Amino acid sequence: MQATECNLLTWHNRKRFTQIHVPWPVYKEALTCKWASSDLNRLTMGKIIFFEEKNFQGRHYECSGDSAELQSFLTRCNSIRVESGCWMAYEKSNFSGYQYVLHKGEYPDYHHWAGFNDRIHSCRMVPSHQGDYKVKIFERSDFGGQAKELMDDCPDLRTCFHSGEILSANVMEGYWIFHEHPNYSGRQYFLHPGEYRRFSEWGSASPVTGSLKRITEIN
Description:
The chain is an all-beta fold. It is built from 1 helix and 16 strands. Strand 10 and strand 11 form a beta hairpin. The longest helix has 4 residues, at 34-37. Belongs to the beta/gamma-crystallin family. InterPro entries: Beta/Gamma-Crystallin, Beta/gamma_crystallin, G_crystallin-like.
């Protein structure tokens, strides 16, 4: 793995830091599934800038790859500019807490990324994906009960699945966001290809799911 370069910028100086690459959360399925050997190898460099104040003001921090800990550089985050790539930002260090998908563009305050507060303490870049999208969802843990395969966005889970809950999932193709409420609102949960035997494995405290969306905007 190559080291990740990040820059800390202030009004008066500019210092360059080099961080060691931090791997994605380790699931045993990720060690053998094809995204680990193909999509990550095609990862293109991105650029994201976090600002402490609204409207891209104050101290800011520039990053071009995964970072498991941002708190050393910024005490808070009230605006973000994504210059390239698609990113996941996390409320807490080590890719935990509230999750937010960020496409290329400007976010002048945390409400623009549906943030629950002004804390962003880790981030990672979403690898590019070329091909189909497919996820299989289950009504029970460990892939039990009724199941359904989805290959497209679903703005309201209740219209395509008998339940508003997903207790386990198998992401076979592409990268997906599970949303807590219909119409892609509420808490967000990022799922990469692999098996999730219970909802806690994608970071949720509840199986309640209102909608599902593919991550298709990468650049």
